[in-house]
C-alpha cells in the first residue's frame, strides 16, 4: 500500500512544479507519477525528474495519458482523438511514498466537465508551488481557496524564485499555511542542485509523512 501521497499543484503552468516534484521525490526517495503529459512526450516531466534524482529507491511510473500537443489537456486530447477521463487514470501501485504532479494549475480542464482538481484524492497531501511574479499573490490565494472549498488537505506552500519578502509574508499571513521551502532562481539545475534542496527540505517533509 502507498505510504503517503503528495499531490504537487501550482498556481499556473511553468511555475516549477517539476523541479519541486524532483526535489520532494529525492528528499523522500519517493516514487513519481505524472498522470497527464501534454506535449514533449519524449522529453516530458517524468524524463526530467528521472534525470534530476540520484537515489536508487525511486520508481518513475508511466504516464496514464500522453498527448502530442503542449496545450490544455482537454484540447490536446481532442486533437489526438482521445477520450481523457479521470475514471481512466489509476494511481500506480507501490509500497513507497508517491509524488503526483498535476498539469498546469488546479482548474485546468481534462475534458468538458473534469479538471485537475478531480485527480486529487481526499487522502492526498497537497503542496502548492507559488512562483514569484506580479500577480502571483492573487493566483496563490485563489488556489488555496479552491482547495479549501473542496475540503482537500493542503499541507504547505513552496515558493519558486528569489526571495520576495512582502509577497511571502502576505501569503503566509493570509493563508496560515506552512512554508515548506523556496527554490531560488538557479542559473542551472542538475541532480546536485536537486540533492542540495532535498537535504535542506527533508526534515520539513518528513514531518508531513510521519
Ligand atoms: N527555481 C528555478 N530556477 C531555475 N529554473 C527554473 C526554476 N523553476 C523552474 N525553472 C525552469 O522553468 C521551466 C518551467 O518549470 P517547470 O517545468 O518545473 O514547470 P511546471 O510547473 O512543472 O509546468 P507544467 O505545468 O508544464 O508541468 C523549466 O525550464 C524549469 O527548468
Ligand atoms: C502544456 C503545459 N506544459 C501544461 N502541461 C498544460 C498547461 C495548461 C494550461 C491551460 C490554462 O490554464 O490555460
Ligand atoms: Mg511540470
TrEMBL record:
EC nos: 6.3.3.3
Pfam families: AAA_26
Keywords: ATP-binding, Biotin biosynthesis, Cytoplasm, Ligase, Magnesium, Metal-binding, Nucleotide-binding
Amino acids binding Mg(2+): 18, 45, 101
Keyword ATP-binding attached: yes
Active site: residue positions: 34
Catalytic activity: (7R,8S)-7,8-diammoniononanoate + CO2 + ATP = (4R,5S)-dethiobiotin + ADP + phosphate + 3 H(+)
Pathway assigned in UniProt: Cofactor biosynthesis; biotin biosynthesis; biotin from 7,8-diaminononanoate: step 1/2
Record localization: Cytoplasm
CDD domains, A to Z: DTBS
SUPFAM superfamilies linked: P-loop containing nucleoside triphosphate hydrolases
Binding site for ATP: 14-19, 45, 101-104, 187-189
First-listed, main subcellular location of the protein, grouped into a coarse class: cytoplasm
Cofactor(s) the record lists: Mg(2+)
Assembly information from the UniProt record: Homodimer.
The protein's role, per its UniProt record: Catalyzes a mechanistically unusual reaction, the ATP-dependent insertion of CO2 between the N7 and N8 nitrogen atoms of 7,8-diaminopelargonic acid (DAPA, also called 7,8-diammoniononanoate) to form a ureido ring.
Matches recorded under HAMAP family: BioD (MF_00336)
Family under the similarity heading: Belongs to the dethiobiotin synthetase family.
Record protein name field: ATP-dependent dethiobiotin synthetase BioD
High-level lineage: Bacteria, Pseudomonadati, Bacteroidota, Flavobacteriia, Flavobacteriales
Amino acid at each position: 500500500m502507498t505510504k503517503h501521497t503528495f499531490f504537487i499543484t501550482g498556481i499556473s503552468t511553468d511555475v516549477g512544479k517539476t523541479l519541486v516534484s524532483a526535489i520532494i521525490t529525492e528528499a523522500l526517495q519517493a516514487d513519481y507519477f505524472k498522470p497527464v503529459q501534454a506535449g514533449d512526450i519524449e522529453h516530458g516531466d517524468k524524463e526530467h525528474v528521472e534525470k534530476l534524482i540520484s537515489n536508487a529507491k525511486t520508481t518513475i511510473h508511466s504516464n496514464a495519458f500522453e498527448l502530442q500537443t503542449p496545450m490544455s489537456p482537454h484540447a490536446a486530447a481532442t486533437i489526438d482523438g482521445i477520450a481523457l477521463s479521470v475514471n481512466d487514470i489509476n494511481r500506480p501501485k507501490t509500497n513507497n511514498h508517491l509524488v503526483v504532479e498535476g498539469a498546469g494549475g488546479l482548474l485546468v480542464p481534462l475534458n468538458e466537465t473534469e479538471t485537475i482538481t478531480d485527480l486529487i484524492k481526499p487522502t492526498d497531501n497537497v503542496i502548492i508551488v507559488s512562483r514569484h511574479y506580479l500577480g502571483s499573490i492573487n493566483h496563490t490565494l485563489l488556489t488555496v481557496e479552491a482547495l479549501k472549498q473542496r475540503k482537500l488537505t493542503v499541507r504547505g506552500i513552496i515558493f519558486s524564485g528569489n526571495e520576495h519578502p512582502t509577497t511571502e509574508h502576505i501569503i503566509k499571513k493570509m493563508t496560515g499555511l506552512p512554508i515548506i521551502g523556496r527554490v531560488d532562481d538557479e542559473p542551472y539545475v542538475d541532480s546536485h542542485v536537486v540533492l542540495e534542496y532535498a537535504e535542506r527540505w527533508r526534515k520539513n517533509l518528513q514531518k508531513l509523512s510521519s
